[in-house]
Amino acid sequence: MQTGELISVNFDSGVLNGAHVLESARTLRDLEGVFRDEAAYRAMDPSKVIYRTQFFLPVPEGLEGGLFWGTTFIEPGRVGDEYFMTKGHFHAKRDRSEYYVTAAGSGALILMAEDGATHAQFMTPGSVHYIPGHTAHRVANTGDTRLSFLACWPSDAGHDYQTIAEHGFSARLRCIDGKPELVAER
Ligand code: S6P
Ligand code: ZN
Question: Which atom of ligand 1 is nearest to the CA of 159?
């Protein structure tokens, strides 16, 4: 039996194991301009890790027809009244879709269509989230523990961070009276 590039996933933690699993981390410094409360952002340690990712890329990036697999781990915390969250992106090839599956913790998947219409889906262990093409996606950790979710996306999807850096999401998930609330920006 041929095993290929075997990896495994721990469904309780979301952790991927295998010789070909890659890792990266985003610190507060990498999230410049993401959070609305600039003063709160400046007062925090820029080297603090906000989220880490693990990736399994069995085919070259950009190849049509392949699939990638990964896990994202977002620490609990807030910058001002906004929860720690991912930068968020559209896929560079806009029609490419993606699945997220929550492994641990609780959070919200924030989805924004190209016309700016935004909504959120609650994430809880076992929840499966289909992200259609043409939809920007970002995840916020609304809980007190680490949020982990698995992802599967096409190897030619690519990432467009620039559009979000320039225009942001049209709504932000803020902690209001202790509860997450999606608040329109404009
Ligand atoms: C890739 C997929 C995820 C994110 C990860 C980090 O298409 O959506 O693996 O890359 O959750 O988020 P971001 O917005 O920093 O790439
Ligand atoms: Zn994506």
Answer: 7
Q: How far is the CA of 72 from the centre of ligand 1 (A)?
A: 7
Tell me the CA end-to-end span of the chain in Å, nearest whole number. 57
Assess whether the C-beta atom of 52 lies below 6 angstroms from ligand 1: no
Q: What is the dihedral of CA 83, 86, 90, 92, to 10 degrees?
A: 170
Identify the H or E element spanning 40: helix 38-42
61 within some domain:
yes
Residue 72 Cβ contacting ligand 1 at under 6 Å: yes
Domain with 141 in it: what CATH number?
2.60.120.10
* Structure confidence by residue, pLDDT tens digits, 96-151: 999 999 999 999 999 999 999 999 999 999 999 999 999 999 999 999 999 999 99
Number of domains in the chain: 1
pLDDT (tens digit per residue) in 14-26 = 999 999 999 999 9
Q: Is 1 within the bounds of a domain?
A: no
Which atom of ligand 1 is nearest the CA belonging to 138? Answer: 14
Q: What is the pTM of this model?
A: 0.97
